[in-house]
Amino acid sequence: MSLSTSLQILKHKEFRLFVFARFFLTLAIQMQMSTINLQIYYEYSKEEIILGMIGLTEALPFIATSFFSGHIADIISRRRILLIGCSALLFGSLFLFGFSNSLFTWVHSFGMYALFAVVFVFGIIRSFLAVSTHPFMSQIIPRELYTQSATWNSTAWHIGSILGPVLAGVLYGYNHSFHANWCYGITCVLFICAFICFALIKSKPIPAKAKEETFMESMTVGVKFVFKNKLVLSALSLDLFAVLFGGAVALVPAFTDKILHLGPDAYGLLRTAPAVGAVLMAFYMAVKPPAKNAGISLLLGVAAFGLFTIFFALSTNYWLAFAMLLFTGAFDNISVVVRHSILQLSTPDEMRGRVAAVNSIFIGSSNEIGAFESGVAARLLGLVPSIAFGGVMTILVVLGVHKLNPKLKDLDITKLE
C-alpha cells in the first residue's frame, strides 16, 4: 500500500475531527494521570506499591461498570456518551486545579486520598468512553477503511501519550512551586477542545438490534460473542497478558528515581518512550499494514514486546532505557492495530458497544491491574527483577496462545472483510 492510499481516509472530514478529538482527549488524560502519579509519589509516598494502588483504584470501578456502559453504548447515541464523558473529565480537572491551589481547604486535608478518590471516579467515566470511542469511529467510516482507521486512531492516541507525560514531567519537575497547577489548567483546555471536535461530528443513528433481548441478555452478549470467536479471544488474550505482565511503564517514576537516580523532569521523557516507538511503528504500518500476515505479526510483536521489557529492566543508562522502552511501544502497537482490526471487522454494529466493553475489561483495565501487579511484584521481588519477570511471562503467554490456537499465525485480515 502506498502512502497516498493510506492517506485516503483523512479525506473524510468527520474522521479528521474524530482523530483530533482522540488526540486532545488522550493528551489530557495522560497528562492528568501522569501529574497525579507524580504528586502522589513525590509529595506523599515514594513507594512502588503506591503507584500500583493508583492503577488498581482506577481499574476496579472501570471493570465494575464496563458491562453496563457497553449496554448503554448500544442503546443510546455514542456521540452523546463521548460529549458527557468529556464534560465530566473537565469538571474533574477543575476540581484537581482547585485542590492543587488549596482552594478546597477541607478536601486538601485528606491529602493523597482525595487524589485517589478522583482516580476512582475517572475509572467510571473512562469505562463509558472506552466502549463508545471505537464503535463511534466505526460508524463514521466505510468498512473497507477499518484497518487504516485503526492505524490512524492508534497514532493519535500514541502521540497524545507521548506529549502528555512529557508536559506533566516538565511542568511539574521544572519548578516545584508550580506543583500541578499548570498541568491541570492545561488539561481543562484540552478537554474543551476534545468536546468541541466531537460536537462538530454529526450524531449517528442507534444501531437496530437483530432481536429483542432482556437486560441481562444484553449485558452478557459481548462476553458470549468473544468466547465463541476463537480468533477474537486469542487476540484479546495476547494483549491482556502482555499488558498485565509487561507493566513496566507504571514503575517508571520509581525506576527513574532509584535506578537511574534522576528527577521528575527525566521521568516525563522516559515515560513517553513507548508511545514514541508506537508512533514510529504506526507510520510504518500506514504504508505496510499488517493485513495478510496479521497472525504472525501479532505473535512476534507481543513476543518482542516481552523481550525488550527484559532488556529495559537490565538497563542502567538513561538513553539505553529510553531505547528499550521505545521498542516495547513499537512492537506493542502491532498487536493494538491487529486486535482493533479484528474487532471492527468481526463485530456486528448493533453489539459493538458490548463487545467493546469486553475488550475494555481485557485490555483497558489490564493496564491498571498490570500497574498494581507490577507494584506488588516490585515489593516482593525488587524493582528490577519484577520488570524482568513481567517480560519473561509475556513471552511464555505467546508460546501458550500459539499452542492453543496454532491457526492464529495464518490469520489474514483481508479475508475477514
Descriptive notes:
The protein is globular, with a radius of gyration of 20 Å. Helix 3 (48-73) packs parallel to helix 6 and helix 3 (48-73) packs antiparallel against helix 15 (352-381). It has helices spanning 3-6, 13-44, 48-73, 78-100, 105-108, 112-140, 146-174, 181-199, 215-228, 230-245, 252-258, 264-287, 294-313, 318-346, 352-381, 383-404. It has 417 residues and is an all-alpha fold. It is 79% helix and 0% strand. The chain has one domain (7-202, 216-416): Growth Hormone, Chain: A.
What percentage of the residues does DSSP assign to strands (E)? under 5%
Rg is: 20 Å
CATH superfamily: MFS general substrate transporter like domains
The major sheet is characterized as:
none
CATH topology: Growth Hormone, Chain: A
Distance between the termini: 17 Å
Mean pLDDT: 79
Give the helix level as a range of percent: over 70%
Structural class: mainly alpha
Count of folded domains: 1
Tally the helices: 16
What would you say about this model in short?
This protein has 417 residues and is mostly helical. Helix content is 79%, strand content 0%.
Element layout with pairings:
Blueprint: H1 3-6, H2 13-44, H3 48-73, H4 78-100, H5 105-108, H6 112-140, H7 146-174, H8 181-199, H9 215-228, H10 230-245, H11 252-258, H12 264-287, H13 294-313, H14 318-346, H15 352-381, H16 383-404
Helix pairs in contact: 2-6, 2-7, 2-8, 3-6, 3-9, 3-15, 4-6, 4-8, 6-15, 7-12, 7-14, 9-15, 10-13, 10-14, 10-15, 10-16, 11-12, 12-14, 13-14, 13-16, 15-16
